[in-house]
Description:
The protein is of the alpha+beta class and 135 residues long. It is built from 3 helices and 5 strands; from the N terminus they run H-H-E-E-E-H-E-E. The chain has helices at residues 6-19, 21-27, 79-92, and strands at 31-32, 44-54, 62-73, 103-117, 122-134.
Amino acid sequence: MSYGAAAALQAAIYQRLRADSALDALVGDAIYDAAPPGVPQGPYVSIGPEVVRDASHKTGRGAEHELAVSVVTDAQGFQVAKEAAAAVSDALTDAPLVLARGRLVGLWFLRARARRVEEADVRRIDLFFRALVEG
């Protein structure tokens, strides 16, 4: 197993999200590696935590990344968040990402969780993806 391609995978996901016109129309350039400080206005996307497992095989090293991408908004109701989450899912599912290190075998949607974060009065949708990387 190698964790070596993790940074390259995150960079490729970030670039893919930034280049997506549907997502751009919904959140603009509000795509972050971590939640912005304070209470943000409008929706934003945050590339979140990941869990990585060995996926090496007889002919080479590999890793399976389960990663989260979150959509957060201060809008009332879930409509805005769901539209942005759908754009994230469309942009990433089966995306042909080119990594600076390693090779992406596939990127698949796993599940999503939508919830209201009471203490912050925001809506949040966490989307989980599985990426298989070789090398």
